[in-house]
């Protein structure tokens, strides 16, 4: 078999099976880090084309479709897998090690899927593998959160499958290519992608589940599922106008929730949702510039979001909490983690010379130059919003602000290596965007570092920072308090169970009433018979005659009925 | 209670960063930021702006927009909190919010431990 015929996903799946047999320890962890490096090397050497074609129940399946769009997502998934496994060097939990490999493998398999059935299989693979990163926390809360996560993720797959079946009925093809919204089939597929992409009102699984995973699990979770959905949308629905507006709403609403959320990992989950919005807008515009923007932003985002999750994770590893109300002043004893967090914060806020700046600019430019002025305004506002929660809140309330009195030891060496490496990449991409631009699906003719652009962005960010300082000094900025906030998941976590409990209560009381009534009636009838026919009854006085008369009466009635018909 | 930590035990990076906690440092930072913002605003008049959307022509558009919208965001979020805030154990026991993170998965060491 030619090397390019070998699906990259199988590499991870085989590795996931082997890993359990390697003795637990450094050898095993090194192995989990080598797998993504080897996979990335294989992807790098792939020539564009379609490989691994097999027949499956008469359906032509394409395991490996290699082009620039699938390659950049494949590469960044390998990179994320490598960084995540390095960060998890200390973890000695087979469940998490296997799940991390299978999860990355499924995501990569889905990215290279040339047909929808292959996509579906890996789509569900990511759901099944990733839930173990949540369950691996091994608490009651994590168990229930994992169940909610799994139901929604698998549900997305089921909807996808329904769409595929209908589409096959309509067109006779299962090739995964550009689709146009119109039929029920394409809408179902769109909805399935939308659930995984955390569209507004379909988003809450993200904020619910990511803070519930293990420290290392969240870092790994943050890279794959949602970016796979972004890839699927970019492949299946580029230029679908509704995505522009969905994306714009996605950039906006999470910034309000992120601002008042106390759990920093949930703040990052809201922030992730907001960043996905930018990518979705890029897909909706659908020009070469904007699709490049989406791919570039996904690449940069996986790195800086991973970095932010890693730095908060390191804090959690040393203090046991990620709640802003319990943290503060940690820069004294965790300075390298603090600086890495600041680099991640600067990258996500798109400060010039950091990765977010060179990727987000493509999308903003595309929205402005294609006449979507209102959307552009929304995105600029959302950019200031990103600064507020990811740029300021995360580093400020964890590492600076008031002194919590906590003096945790600096993060362990392997975590520092993973964070410094990622921070380096964030700055490298920001300073030298060309290598990233070269990986993008279309040729890039874009210069992010123009004077207008740099000054405009710096104004936006620094004046927003100034506003933050003013609000802090005047005491208007909301304090961090121990509380949670309701979001649309309230509907299925509280409201629906409440309604169902009410309905169940009504039904159960009706049922109880009915049964007592009928049982009572039956009892009375039996008692009545007993009274008249029982051993003490009136008829019992002439028992043999009485019984005889009764049976003859029944017999006569039967005969009458038979002869009548 | 804030513990007193001997600066000598901290790494050189931390000792440099300790400056931010000195009295008056926050004021200094704030003033520097204000000056940088003012300079950024003035710098707009020194070069020809490349503009895609008409509103970008307003002098200091990005600065004003950033300041106003950031403030608006915080105020709206603050109002939103009064409506949607709930106690941490609201969804308990089916959520992790009121749970302790498992000790076994962490290595909670103090700096001088």
Total discrete domains of chain A: 4
Spatially, the strands of the biggest sheet of chain A line up as: 1-2
Largest sheet of chain A: 2 strands, antiparallel
Question: Whole-Å distance between the termini of chain B?
Answer: 18 Å
**What's the number of helices of chain A?**
21
What series of H and E elements makes up the topology of chain B? HHHE
Classify the helix fraction of chain B into a percent range.
Answer: 40-55%
| Percent range of helical residues of chain A | over 70%
Low-confidence spans of chain A: pLDDT under 50, at least 5 residues? none
| Number of E-type strands of chain B | 1
User: Average pLDDT across residues of chain A?
Assistant: 94
The fraction of residues assigned to DSSP E strands of chain A is under 5%
Rg from alpha-carbon coordinates of chain B: 23 Å
Individual helix count of chain B: 3
Helix/strand structural class of chain A: mainly alpha
E-strand count of chain A: 3
- The chain-level mean pLDDT of chain B equals 90
Largest interface: A-B, 90 and 77 residues
How would you explain this protein's 3D organization?
The complex is a heterodimer of chains A (about 575) and B (about 110). With about 575 residues, chain A is mainly α. Chain A contains 21 helices and 3 strands. Chain A folds into 4 domains: about 1-170, no CATH class; about 235-485, no CATH class; about 490-530; about 535-565. Chain B has one domain. Chain B is an all-alpha fold and about 110 residues long. The longest helix of chain B is centred in the middle third of the chain and has 24 residues, at about 60-85. The model of chain B has no long low-confidence stretch (mean pLDDT about 90). Chain B has helices at about 10-15, 25-45, 60-85, and one strand at about 85. Chain B is flat and about 60 Å long. The chains are: A mainly alpha (about 575), B mainly alpha (about 110). Chains A and B meet through α6, α11, α13, α14 and α15 of A and α1, α2, α3 and β1 of B.
